[in-house]
């Protein structure tokens, strides 16, 4: 997978996210000091799940030769501050002349996209302070996500 680079300057809270070939902007809403120039980080996370879900459905339907005309995933993301548990609710719309078995199978496949699988498993984080991207000097903080 490509490295994603996030860069922020003095403009509150406009952040440029980039790969080797793409750039998008993340931001916060005006009411908390941002300029609302892009999605919030949590929205980007939910958007990653939504995009991965519909891409997975498209690939699967194409491989099976099924008449999926379009798929739409609406993702709601909530976080309970007391339990620290997150909930992603994915509401799917499948358009096309699909029979009940095909629709049921696509519903199963929606939960198998790579982003979904990543989010449902324990996640480890390794945050390393470096002088620049070529540096190997590690001042790291390792944390593990737990239930």
TrEMBL record:
Name of the protein in question: Osmotically inducible protein OsmC
Organism lineage string: Bacteria, Pseudomonadati, Bacteroidota, Cytophagia, Cytophagales
Alphabetized InterPro entries for the sequence: KH_dom-like_a/b, OsmC/Ohr_fam, OsmC/Ohrsf
Gene3D superfamilies reported in the protein's UniProt record: 3.30.300.20
């Amino acid at each position: 997978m490509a490295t994603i680079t996030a860069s922020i300057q003095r403009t509150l809270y406009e952040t440029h996210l980039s790969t080797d070939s793409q750039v998008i902007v993340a931001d916060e809403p005006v009411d908390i000091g941002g300029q609302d120039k892009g999605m919030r980080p949590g929205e980007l996370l939910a958007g990653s799940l939504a995009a991965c879900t519909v891409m997975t459905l498209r690939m699967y339907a194409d491989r099976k030769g099924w008449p999926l005309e379009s798929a739409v995933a609406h993702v709601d993301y909530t976080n309970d501050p007391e339990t620290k548990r997150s909930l992603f609710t994915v509401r799917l719309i499948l358009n096309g002349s699909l029979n009940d078995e095909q629709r049921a199978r696509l519903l199963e496949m929606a939960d198998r996209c790579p982003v979904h699988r990543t989010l449902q498993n324990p996640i480890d984080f390794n945050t390393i302070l470096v002088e620049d991207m070529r540096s190997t000097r590690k001042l790291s903080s390792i944390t593990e996500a737990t239930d």
